[in-house]
Design brief:
By secondary structure, the protein is α+β, with helices and mostly antiparallel strands. It has a two-stranded antiparallel sheet. Strands 2-3 form a two-stranded antiparallel sheet. The radius of gyration is 19 Å and the shape is flat. The relative contact order is 0.16.
């Protein structure tokens, strides 16, 4: 039981360090390309337009970093 809680705490600490060091990750929808692609019947890829999730950047803000930014905003709003 103690081992599982230590591993969970360690995993959370590693993810927090990852979010602090690299706040942006590749977009899962477009795989970091920035455009939506489809294949036609012949197997050729066609570009359909910019990715809606990352808006063509290919990078998205990580969930942990988004939580950190939100908590920072709430803290600053409450202390003023």
């Amino acid at each position: 039981m103690l081992t599982a809680s230590v591993l969970a705490t360690l995993a959370a600490a590693v993810y927090a360090a990852l979010c602090a060091a690299s706040p942006f990750g590749t977009c899962r929808k477009c795989d970091g390309i920035g455009v939506r692609t489809t294949t036609n019947r012949r197997g050729r890829t066609k570009v359909k337009g910019l990715c809606r999730r990352c808006k063509g950047a290919g990078k998205r803000l990580r969930v942990g970093r988004r939580l950190l930014n939100h908590s920072r905003t709430v803290h600053r709003a409450g202390t003023r």
